[in-house]
């Protein structure tokens, strides 16, 4: 490895200012692979602004521009910035530390591995991001990653900029520390590079929630007609025992109503004063027959009056909240909108023998078409389940502190709580 430079600005400026900054045929293949993956990932995100940190000669910056995303590039090298501007790309000479403002997505390609301690840069990237951070990094721990570095040193010698050896896990751990979770890991060029997409745990549209993303919504819709899930849903509604407490004129609220199964169940039994909330637009569009608002369980106070509902159903929602702050906000909101002496019905997964047996069956009999969506859905949510199971005692304390517990019981893989305000 070449020795560490005393001044990174001088080093990068020397690199980009040299006449020999064209790509080799291997470099062109690598760039094409990374640009293809970047386009595929960006098309799935709802973003309008982005920043390319360490934009270099603007290869990736041009990809953002081609997709119509309002993007600025920053680099510490005046030579690199000038080349970007010659390409009609928006770029400024600026270090990451000097960046102010916030962007929907913060991007870098091959930046962090050039720093002995990259954590301050990662922290700054999270601070200027509204939603996402996307980084492309070499996997130095892989065989092909080590091989690529070796050949780069062999062929370019002192012209090659120093890289410190990091594993993909190192980047994931640091961003997680600053409340950004990995939601996508795409390999490029045979696994030499990884495109790592991180999402903040709290955004304007989805506070403290990580599972209601496009991937989860798509898999959830695949479960609608699953015969196994249809059977369990009918059974779960009976086990909820809600029918014992309902009156025909009750205002009934299904919090996190999904595809409307609970609402349909009640509608079919003569209850018409039905309300719901959901945060996925494609699910809300399926429910024009009900009064469904786009609001998360943590923000009920902002959308509904105090003491508004007679009965509230919360079915499979709490395990989608990321942490105890989300649980607390949800309980406060539910108590706020529930009438005095009214009832709250909560059903959530229970990590018992039946739950484990069901998941084992879905995994080992994945070849059975109607079991496949169930296992896929679990894999999408597996991290949230772990967090939820680890915080059971905290959630139970919230129940006791805010409601009178009428009944709690276990039913197959569900734990059911009937609470009264």
Protein described:
By secondary structure, the protein is α/β, with parallel strands linked by helices. It folds into 2 domains: 8-200, 3-Layer(aba) Sandwich (Rossmann fold), CATH 3.40.50.150; 214-420, Vaccinia Virus protein VP39 (Rossmann fold, 3-Layer(aba) Sandwich), CATH 3.40.50. The chain contains 15 helices and 14 strands. Strand 9 (274-278), helix 11 (281-284) and strand 10 form a beta-alpha-beta unit. Helix 2 (25-42) packs parallel to helix 3 (59-66) and helix 8 crosses helix 14 (372-390). The protein is elongated.
Topology:
Layout: H1 8-17, H2 25-42, E1 49-53, H3 59-66, E2 70-75, H4 78-86, E3 91-93, E4 103-109, H5 119-127, E5 129-138, H6 143-156, H7 168-177, E6 180-188, E7 193-200, H8 214-222, H9 227-239, E8 252-255, H10 261-267, E9 274-278, H11 281-284, E10 291-294, E11 309-315, H12 324-337, E12 338-349, H13 353-364, H14 372-390, H15 392-402, E13 404-411, E14 414-420
Parallel strand pairs: 1-2, 1-4, 2-3, 4-5, 8-9, 8-11, 9-10, 11-12
Antiparallel strand pairs: 5-7, 6-7, 12-14, 13-14
Helix pairs in contact: 2-3, 8-14, 12-15
- CATH fold-level label of the largest domain: Rossmann fold
* Count of individual beta strands: 14
Question: What strand order characterises the main sheet?
Answer: 3-2-1-4-5-7-6
Helix content: 25-40%
Shape: elongated
Poorly predicted segments: 1-6, 203-215
As for the number of domains, it is 2
Secondary-structure element string: HHEHEHEEHEHHEEHHEHEHEEHEHHHEE
Number of helices: 15
What's the average pLDDT?
79
| Category by helix and strand content | alpha/beta
């Amino acid at each position: 490895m070449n020795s560490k430079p005393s001044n990174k600005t001088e080093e990068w400026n020397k690199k980009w200012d040299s006449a020999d900054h064209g790509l080799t045929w291997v470099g062109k293949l690598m760039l094409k692979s990374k640009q293809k993956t970047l386009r595929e990932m960006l098309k799935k995100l709802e973003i309008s602004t982005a920043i390319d940190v360490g934009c270099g000669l603007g290869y990736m910056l041009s990809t953002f521009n081609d997709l119509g995303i309002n993007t600025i590039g920053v680099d510490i090298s005046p030579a690199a910035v000038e080349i970007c501007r010659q390409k009609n790309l928006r770029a400024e000479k600026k270090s990451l530390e000097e960046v102010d403002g916030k962007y929907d997505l913060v991007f870098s390609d091959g930046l962090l591995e050039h720093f002995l301690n990259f954590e301050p840069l990662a922290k700054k990237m999270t601070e200027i991001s509204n939603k996402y951070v996307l980084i492309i990094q070499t996997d130095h721990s892989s065989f092909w990653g080590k091989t690529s570095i070796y050949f780069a040193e062999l062929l370019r010698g002192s012209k090659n900029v120093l890289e410190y050896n990091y594993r993909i896990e190192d980047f994931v751990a640091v961003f997680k520390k600053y409340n950004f979770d990995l939601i996508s890991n795409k390999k490029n060029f045979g696994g030499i590079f990884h495109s790592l997409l991180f999402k903040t745990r709290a955004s304007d549209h989805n506070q403290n929630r990580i599972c209601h993303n496009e991937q989860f919504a798509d898999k959830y819709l695949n479960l609608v007609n699953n015969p196994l899930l249809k059977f369990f849903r009918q059974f779960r509604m009976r086990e909820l025992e809600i029918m014992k407490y309902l009156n025909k004129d009750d205002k009934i609220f299904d919090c996190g109503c999904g595809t409307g199964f609970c609402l349909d169940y009640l509608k079919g039994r003569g209850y018409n004063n039905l309300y719901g909330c959901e945060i996925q637009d494609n699910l809300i569009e399926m429910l024009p027959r009900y009064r469904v608002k786009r609001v998360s369980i943590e923000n009920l106070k902002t959308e509904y009056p105090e003491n508004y509902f007679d009965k509230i159903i919360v079915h499979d929602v709490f395990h989608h909240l990321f942490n105890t702050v989300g649980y607390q906000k949800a309980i406060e909101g539910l108590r706020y909108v529930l009438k005095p002496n009214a009832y709250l019905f909560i059903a959530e997964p229970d990590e018992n023998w039946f739950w484990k047996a069901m998941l084992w069956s879905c995994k080992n009999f994945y070849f059975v078409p109607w079991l496949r969506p169930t296992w896929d859905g679990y894999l999408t949510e597996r991290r949230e389940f772990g967090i939820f199971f680890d915080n059971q005692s905290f959630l139970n304390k919230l129940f006791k502190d805010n409601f009178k517990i009428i009944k709690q019981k276990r039913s197959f893989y569900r734990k059911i709580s009937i609470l009264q305000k």
